[in-house]
Amino acid sequence: MSSPFSTITVEQAGGVLTVTLNRPEAYNAFDEQMTVELSTAFKNAQRDDAVRCVVLTGAGRAFCAGQDLKEIEGHYRDDGEGPLDFGAHLRKRLNPLITRIRTLEKPVVASLNGVAAGAGASLAFACDLRIASKSAYFTMAFAAIGLVPDCGATLTLLQHVGYSKALELCWLGEKFSAEEAARCGLVNKVAEPEQLADATRELASTLAAMPTRGLGLIKRALGKAWTATLDDQLEYEAFLQQTAGLTQDHREGVRAFLEKRKPKFEGK
Ligand code: T3D
Questions:
Q1: pLDDT of residue 1
Q2: What is the tens place of the pLDDT at every residue in 13-38?
Q3: At a CB cut-off of 8 Å and minimum separation 6, what does 17 contact?
Q4: How far is the CA of 226 from the centre of ligand 1 (A)?
Q5: What is the pTM of this model?
Q6: H or E element in which residue 249 lies
Q7: Which of 6, 10, 178, 240 has the maximal Cβ count within 10 Å?
């Protein structure tokens, strides 16, 4: 069957769905079509029980160079539609995509094969875990073209690196290497470029074989904790634990421990 997508590719192996940004000639910059296709791919991933981990990566040399500047420039031409309404565009396209990734109750791993610039960096920060090639780097390219970081990066970057460093990165837009990002917890693992694919596969297949519903509930708990009081969080944990305690994977985990065997989780 032919792919319904033209700017991304999707491939499923075992429980791992790999979504590849596929506009290598533009360093996988977002055009309108790509934001629509990415949203569809994540919506499908939510619905499909066979998907138990999503990997997001880029084709060619870059992960993603943010918004397609040629598409933006087109709006300013004499025959163009006039300046892009960024607010409306973000609310309609990119914000729902980021929310979809953050609320997908399955692990989402960004596998950073190269540069992540502007909204491409924000996209990587929105994923749950980041594994990066040693040659990958981030650049908060927004200020250099008079824009502000978007797609949640003002929050996600702040959470990882603190106010002063986040402001430095957002103002100056200097290269932030994968190794530097790993030192402050923004990148979970750095791999040699030729080992990135294998290291990603290993991490993703480990996650895909785990109790998917439990992992999703943990993601929910940590997502809420940023703004919660301790009392709120204790109550929320009790609620989530009640839900996790009813899953088949919880029962399998306990049984396997007592029977001294490896558990076989079904993601249910
Ligand atoms: O509502 C909304 O959507 C607004 C949201 C906006 C959020 C944003 O993302 S703003 C930030 C937009 N992104 C940028 O400003 C980054 C622009 N790109 C770069 O600064 C550099 O390309 C990189 C640092 C990413 C990589 O540098 P380098 O030297 O390795 O590569 P290069 O030669 O500059 O680029 C390679 C090709 O990719 C080149 O094409 P060509 O000339 O060989 O045909 C270049 O034009 C293309 N490319 C790179 N980034 C973009 C792009 N094409 C379109 N849009 C891009 N963002």
A1: 66
A2: 999 999 999 999 999 999 999 999 99
A3: 10, 11, 41, 45, 48, 51, 53, 54, 55
A4: 32
A5: 0.96
A6: helix 248-258
A7: 178
67-111 confidence digits (pLDDT tens): 999 988 887 776 767 788 899 999 999 999 999 999 999 999 999
- pLDDT of amino acid 157: 94
Residue 70 CA to ligand 1 center (angstroms) comes to 9
d(CA 222, CA 39): 23
Neighbouring CB atoms inside 10 A of 182's CB total 17
* Alpha carbon distance 92, 83 (integer Å): 16
Side chain identity at residue 218, one-letter code: I
Residue closest via CA to ligand 1's atom 38 equals 26
- Whether 89 is in the pocket of ligand 1, judged by its Cβ within 6 Å, is yes
- Rounded distance between C-alpha atoms, residue 188 and residue 105, angstroms: 19
What tokens were used for 25?
């000639």
